[in-house]
Amino acid sequence: MSTFKTVALSALALTAAYSAVMAQGTPFDYHADNFADIEVLRYQVPDFDSLSLNQKRLVYYLTEAALWGRDILWDQNYKHNLEIRALLENLYQNYKGDRSTADFKAFEQYVKQVEFANGIHHHYSMDKFTPGFSQAWFEQAMATVDNKPVRAEILAVIFDPAVDAKRVNQAEGEDLILTSANNFYEGVTQQEVEDYYNALKNPADPTPVSYGLNTRVVKKNGKVTEQTYKLGGLYSDAIAHIVDNLTKAMAYAENDAQRLVIARLIDYYTTGDLATFDDYSIKWTEDTASQVDFINGFIESYGDPLGMTGSWESIVNFKNIPASHRTEVLSANAQWFENNSPVDPRFRKDEVKGVSAKVITAAILAGDAYPATPIGINLPNANWIRAAHGSKSVTLENITQAYDEASHGNGFNEEFVIDAPTRELLDKYLFITDNLHTDLHECLGHGSGRLLPGVDPDALKAHGSTLEEARADLFALYYLADPKLIELGLLDNPDAYQAEYYKYMLNGLMTQLMRIEPGKDIEEAHMRNRQLIARWAYEHGKKDKVVELTKRGGKTYVRINDYRALRDLFGQLLGEIQRIKSEGDYAAGADLVQRYAVKVDPKLHQEVLKRYSKLSIAPYKGFVNPVYEAVYDDNGNITNVKVTYGEGYMPQMLRYSKNYNGLGK
Ligand code: ZN
After folding, report:
1. Cα-to-centroid distance, 463 and ligand 1 (Å)
2. pLDDT, average across residues 14-22
């Protein structure tokens, strides 16, 4: 709890989570499971009981709609995922042989990894998992629970490392479609896909739809064509369950605006029409009055090497009213931040519209947001909607709170942070500055700046995600150190930002490398972004020793000598990346990414892995969801919704697979 105790600011009202923990008396069990490089946590849903009965009904049906999309994501991730999951879960549940053997233990770990990744490729590195058990053992064990032998193609997928090795390949110069195992494309080359969309796109269209967002691209009779995810189209069965629950939820909408949002989403699922999706997105963005909110659909495109097709996800949430004060203050001052940002005035927005931001309590995480989940979300993604209608930005504070609580006393700071005063700084200010960083990133960073007229929003291509994340991070880093935050009452100490700066540089230069296997490059967009920023600032501040990597007792430490100069460097890089985005300067963007974001110093990497291994801290975390149980009266009306937290990791996965088998596979 120490992070809460040290945040003594009225603007940062203690989160309800804190009071809920205290009220319970017994400490909440944040740890659900541990395996491979994963730790699974639990999160609480404080104040659920303060919602009205109708709000609880609304949340309940939205959580059902969320869970019904799970198998869509599994199939999007890889075409054999659902078939493999069925085999693995059958063996896991019904195996009567010795469960204490090395083979079974390795099998159990593999099952847990696959469940966590929503498929057979790691959720972050995108590499296919390597089974620690033999094919002979697997076939023999499967024969005891299933009278059909496992298909040869499936055996090859599981055991041959060369088959579909990577879900999303970002390696420059390769055919990113042919070398990526995801199920967004079938039988088409990258060139064919690019040609197909270039023919559809009209560069003069000021309000382009998000091409390819809800489709699978295939070749039929030699012609490239799209299969649409919709009722009656691809994934129809699961979508029917989603629509059914959205329809039930609509009856309990908090107001007409929200009712219309749900209705438009149903229209979109029914027709697959992307202009309808845009209309839904606009109405969703403009509904800021409802306390309960949700996303449900094909949203983020990180799973597509071309950044077009959305992976299915859903998060249901409700506003944490006291904590939202923080983001409301930032939003109310959005124009000030835009006008003062360290970028060429030509690239600033004259008018920042409708940046709405709130702190939310997540009620359920689903699809691509489960079990690994983002801590901040900013939507919609369409550039023109953001420019004309603003965007909605949220911070999932019950999730960040769970991370924070679960990490206390894990030894990380003692091992990696350079000295006691810096550790103290982190103890005191990291929780609040980290939350503020997320707020600034999501509610101001992504929404800031503008493209020059005629610049293609996709001009940065494969580097677009990395550079966009860098832009939002830099905006947040730059302003964390601004006296404006003190003036607005969001921080009480002008040096507080140093906690986030230290953590950011430590993470970007060193500790995030623990997520990378020896010999590999950095591929994931957020990790590339963090290393890009940290390495660039380190290199450009080298002659003034702004940031140093110093050795002590054979160990490397990050030392920041001049925090103000580091802030200036962040400002300079923000100016450059904004220019690259505004002008669509692909060559400069690609150069930045290749120079700073991708390559890893092998010696430092080894050292980080070694020091980490002694701490037994999992590099990746995710969550099990709470369980919502509806209580019905004799007429089938919900009279109450109960929330409980005790469900284990595998029991939850198996329950979801059984009860929300949306595609019947
Ligand atoms: Zn972002």
Report:
1. 14
2. 36
